Amino acid sequence: MSTVYDCGRQDSREAGLAAAAGAVRSGRLVVMPTDTVYGIGCDAFDSAAVRSLLQAKGRGPDMPVPVLVGSWTTVDGLTLSVPTSARLLIEAFWPGGLSIVLPHAPSLSWDLGQTRGTVMLRMPLHPVALELLREVGPMAVSSANRSGQPPAATAEQAREQLGESVPVYLDGGPSGEPVASTIVDLTGPDPLVLRVGAVPVAEVSEVLGTEVSVAE
């Protein structure tokens, strides 16, 4: 049985965040608003929960799940190292619509899919998402839709696609234009934009002081 919590009302928001935190800690899934599209998420360190997330979406491990964080400093504990280019992008665009791919710390016991030793990180600009992330820690979060279907811009759209596979839905109102984050890969010798999204490539290039290529 899934429950939708209206985060526009203080009492419902508090109850929803408590229910969502409890669900994440017990290895279950939640749907939450972000500044781009609605996301389906779970504890990033719970491999069984991540498998449940992929199953709910109808997706395989060949498309690894990104990780959302609630603060800049969390990145240091999740990655092998944080290069200057990453810190510049974090300071310029976090919280916001920019995802960064970095080598993950080899000591971490997580299974986000076929990551080839990397992790995609983002800090969302949404108060509900940030409050939950700061309560439970890093979460594996993907767009709240069935694979191949349009991303959800509302909690209701997410529920129509994901149904009872998710016990807790946090309704933060419409997300606006459902634009995904821009993804910048910093694992190679030069920064590479893997996906053009909410943050223009020109702004990424300006912050890094070099023209950034876009993957074909």
TrEMBL record:
EC number from the UniProt entry: 2.7.7.87
Domain YrdC-like: 14-199
Protein name per its UniProtKB record: L-threonylcarbamoyladenylate synthase
Keyword Nucleotide-binding belongs to the record: yes
Family of the protein in this entry: Belongs to the SUA5 family.
BP GO terms, sorted: regulation of translational fidelity; tRNA processing
Subcellular location(s) per record: Cytoplasm
Molecular-function GO term, any one: L-threonylcarbamoyladenylate synthase
Catalytic activity: L-threonine + hydrogencarbonate + ATP = L-threonylcarbamoyladenylate + diphosphate + H2O
Keywords: ATP-binding, Cytoplasm, Nucleotide-binding, Nucleotidyltransferase, Transferase, tRNA processing
InterPro entries, per database record: DHBP_synth_RibB-like_a/b_dom, Sua5-like_dom, TC-AMP_synthase_SUA5
NCBIfam families for the chain: L-threonylcarbamoyladenylate synthase
CC annotations in GO: cytoplasm
Keyword Nucleotide-binding: yes
Enzyme superclass (EC): transferase
